[in-house]
Amino acid sequence: ARAAAYYGGELTPGELTGATRALADHLLAQTDAGLAWLAALLDHPTIDDTQRQTLCNRCQFELNEALENEAPLATRHALLSAVRNTLERLAAQDPGNAAWQRDLSVSHNKLGDVLTAQGDLAGALTAYRASLAIRERLAAQDPGNAAWQRDRVVSFYKLASHCQQAGEAVEANDYWRRCQETLRHMKSVGMFLDPPLVQLLAQFDANQT
Q1: b/e string for 153-166 if b means 16 or more Cβ within 10 A?
Q2: Which residue of 44, 86, 124, 180 pairs with 116 in a disulfide if CB–CB is 3.0 to 4.6 A?
Q3: Host H or E run for residue 81
């Protein structure tokens, strides 16, 4: 209970780094027991949903990144699966909470990245499609939200690349088209494009000249 409240609470950058390192070391030293303990941490009954959301995000960003070069892919897969399961329950209990829905879409993407590294292209595509489905709903509810549009571009890019690798040329081309159209729409209405998106749009334009 104390660990759940601490890692899900307000922490200084130094405290967050230290807590993340402690959790990473625990998982590396006792993989199976550590993963089971962490899964219980995410769903601990003594914390509220705000703390639970924070826990999930720290696990899928800070903790996942701390384990990236040290833990087997199977460990990171199990960690991200536990996070996704908790976020699915959060999102299901309040479908109108855009932040929780977005967190779940990120979780699917993170899991898709690990599945890709494991060589499970079909599993990665399933995860990326699940992420896109959420992002399409969010963008439809708030078309003027640049963050939702950017998320769609990321999903289109990932799916286009993976479908291309899988030999699904028709589906890949459709995602490339949607990626390009979304970027052009964002530019035409004055939505902010960060440097990677500007570069991507330039690549699309260059390929058509």
Answers
A1: bbbbbbbbbbbeee
A2: 124
A3: helix 73-93
Q: Are 185 and 149 in contact (CB under 8 A)?
A: yes
Which amino acid would we find at residue 113?
Answer: D
CB 59 within 8 A of CB 83: yes
* Cα 74 to Cα 87: distance, rounded to the nearest angstrom: 20
Residue 109 CA to its chain's centroid (Å): 4
Name residue, tokens 């998982």: 27
pLDDT digits 0-9 by tens, 60-105: 999 999 999 999 999 999 999 999 999 999 999 999 999 999 999 9
How do residues 141-156 score in pLDDT, each as one tens digit?
999 999 999 999 999 9
* Main-chain phi, psi angles of 99, to 5 degrees: -65, -40
